[in-house]
C-alpha cells in the first residue's frame, strides 16, 4: 500500500512515506482513513525537523519532482541536517511509541486496539504497527 516508514531517502526515515501519501492523495488513491493524518503527527514532526511547510511540500510534489529532488528542495528551503542530527531523528522515529515519556503513555496501545491489534505484544513502535497493518510483516 504505502512505502515503509523505514525506507530512506537521503538517509532520512519517514520523508519518503510522507511524500508517497501526498502523491496517493493527489491521484485519489489514498484511503479515506488516512486523510485526517495528512500533515499531522509524524508528517508534522518531519516537516518541523526539516524546517519546511507541509503545504509548500505538497506544491513541490505536485510539480513532479522526484524523491531526492524533494529532499534537496527541503534542505534548501529549511534545514539541512548533519549526520548526527539525522541519526538522532532516525533513532527517535523508529522507536516512537516504545517507552515514550511525553504525551499519553497508552497512546500506542490505544491505537493498536483501535485497529484490532491490541493483543499484539510484539508491536512496540508505530513503525512496527505500520509494517503489520500494511502487510509487510506478520
What would your notes on this structure say?
This protein has 138 residues and is mainly α. The protein folds into two domains: 1-81, no CATH class; 95-138, no CATH class. The chain is 51% helix and 0% strand. The protein is built from seven helices and no strands. It has helices at 15-26, 41-50, 54-62, 67-77, 83-94, 107-114, 126-133. Helix 1 packs across helix 3. The chain is globular, with a radius of gyration of 15 Å. It starts with 14 loop residues before the first helix and ends in a 5-residue tail after the last helix. The mean pLDDT is 96.
How many domains, in number, for the residues? 2
Overall helicity: 40-55%
Shape: globular
Report low-confidence residues grouped into runs of 5 or more: none
Instruction: Round the mean pLDDT to the nearest integer and report it.
Output: 96
Total strand count, please?
0
Rounded to the nearest angstrom, the distance between the terminal CA atoms is: 15 Å
H/E element sequence? HHHHHHH
Number of helices: 7
Structural class estimated from helices and strands? mainly alpha
Instruction: Describe the sheet with the most strands.
Output: none
Whole-number radius of gyration? 15 Å
Tell me the β content.
under 5%
Amino acid at each position: 500500500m504505502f512505502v515503509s516508514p523505514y525506507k530512506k531517502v537521503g538517509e532520512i526515515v519517514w520523508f519518503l512515506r510522507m511524500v508517497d501519501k501526498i502523491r496517493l492523495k493527489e491521484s485519489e488513491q489514498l484511503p479515506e482513513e488516512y486523510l485526517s493524518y495528512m500533515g499531522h503527527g509524524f508528517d508534522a514532526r518531519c516537516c518541523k525537523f526539516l524546517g519546511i511547510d507541509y503545504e509548500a511540500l505538497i506544491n513541490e510534489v505536485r510539480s513532479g519532482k522526484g524523491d531526492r529532488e524533494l529532499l534537496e528542495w527541503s534542505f534548501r528551503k529549511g534545514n539541512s541536517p548533519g549526520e548526527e542530527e539525522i541519526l538522532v531523528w532516525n533513532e527517535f522515529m523508529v522507536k516512537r511509541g516504545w517507552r515514550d515519556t511525553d504525551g499519553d503513555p497508552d497512546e500506542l496501545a490505544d491505537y493498536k486496539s483501535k485497529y484490532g491489534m491490541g493483543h499484539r505484544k510484539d508491536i512496540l513502535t508505530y513503525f512496527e504497527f505500520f509494517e503489520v497493518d500494511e502487510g509487510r510483516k506478520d
